[in-house]
Write a structure and sequence with these properties.
Helix content is 41%, strand content 21%. The strands form 2 sheets. It has a 5-stranded antiparallel beta sheet. The protein has a 5-stranded mixed beta sheet with strand order 7-8-6-9-10, sandwiched between helices. Strand 1 and strand 2 (28-31) form a beta hairpin. It is of the alpha+beta class. The chain folds into 2 domains: 2-135, 2-Layer Sandwich (Beta-Lactamase); 152-318, Alpha-Beta Plaits (2-Layer Sandwich), CATH 3.30.70.270.
Length: 324
């Protein structure tokens, strides 16, 4: 029988799970080796040492009340870390030395289980280290966030994609209506980009799109503004709290910025270098507007910019009295 107890004690000592048993007088009858290593206590464990002598910080604690309740009523309980932060003063073993400057607490949960045998009442406290599972949860959350960002980002240029643009425009149209503030949208298109691709190849075309996106992003830098790739060689800029005059000024600066890149484009009908055409639409408070309607007006303005010879900015302004 004693050999079995020794074997059981050795087995519990190897487990990365804490086992603590106390009697009705709250004296410790057993504590396994793993729990001894992770307890940050100045007192050395010995048989029948009072629990509060080993762990005086438990005085008046939720854990002590739970142990007493289990001894008296015979009802088990679970102390989760979400409701009970650090119910035991547990720290990772590598930080338990006296010279440790920044001990790292161990996230853990506890099961409090009453034990009744031969008329004697004891209580088992089972400790589970949650550090690994919490690290996995943090990693999975970070991966999920990364995937979420990727699902809203254009893979080639790194700016927002059309899905993100649609979401953001919906949000901003509603916010503009609530706050009674203007909202502007710019749609721009690289002039004769198909011919650029045909002449220089798709790799050069991709490099061109990346350079254009970076240049546009450098100008669209105000908090709340959004640059998105609308599709192919088209980009969209959403400008909350921006009136028509400010939106037109930004659109013209974007046109000049891209022209200033001096990317050769001999197939361009309006210049020997790469240029863009831009359409601008601004919703002013007064009448209801949908994101689709505002985007359509911006697209119509872009179409007129192309009809007027490209490499220019055309605006469509919506005012409360308009019948368009």
């Amino acid at each position: 029988m004693s050999e079995n107890c020794t074997l059981l004690s050795a087995a519990l000592g190897k487990m990365h799970t804490g086992v603590l048993i106390v009697d009705e007088q709250l004296r410790i009858c057993f504590i396994n080796q793993w729990l001894q290593r992770v307890l940050r206590s100045q007192s050395a464990w010995r048989a029948e040492i009072p629990l509060l002598e080993l762990l005086p910080e438990l005085e008046g604690s939720r854990l002590l009340r739970t142990i007493n309740q289990a001894l008296q009523s015979g009802l088990p309980a679970v102390l989760s870390p979400s409701l009970n932060t650090q119910p035991l003063p547990l720290f990772h073993p590598q930080f338990n030395g006296h010279d440790a400057e920044e001990p790292q607490p161990m996230a853990h949960s506890l099961q409090v289980i009453p034990l009744r045998q031969d008329g004697l009442h004891h209580c088992l406290v089972a400790v589970t280290d949650l550090s690994a599972s919490m690290r996995r949860e943090t990693l999975l959350k970070a991966q999920a966030e990364k995937l979420g960002i990727q699902s809203l980002t254009d893979e080639l240029t790194g700016v927002a994609n059309r899905r993100r643009m649609n979401q953001y425009l919906e949000e901003e149209v509603r916010r503009a209506a609530r706050s009674y503030r203007p909202l502007s949208v710019i749609l721009l298109d690289i002039d004769h980009f198909k011919q650029f691709n045909d002449r220089f190849g798709h790799l050069a075309g991709d490099d061109c799109l990346i350079r254009v996106a970076l240049s546009l992003q450098a100008r669209v830098s105000r908090a709340g503004d959004l640059l998105a790739r609308y599709g192919g060689e088209e980009f969209c800029v959403i400008l909350p709290d921006t009136d028509s005059e400010a939106a037109l000024a930004l659109a013209e600066s974007l046109r000049l910025k891209i022209a200033g890149l001096n990317i050769g484009h001999p197939m361009n009908s309006c210049a020997p270098t790469l240029t863009i055409s831009l359409g601008v639409a601004t919703w002013l408070p007064g009448l209801p507007e949908t994101s689709t309607g505002l985007l359509l007006k911006t697209d119509n303005a872009l179409y007129r910019a192309k009809q007027q010879g490209r490499n220019c900015v055309v605006s469509h302004v919506r005012v409360p009295s308009s019948n368009d």
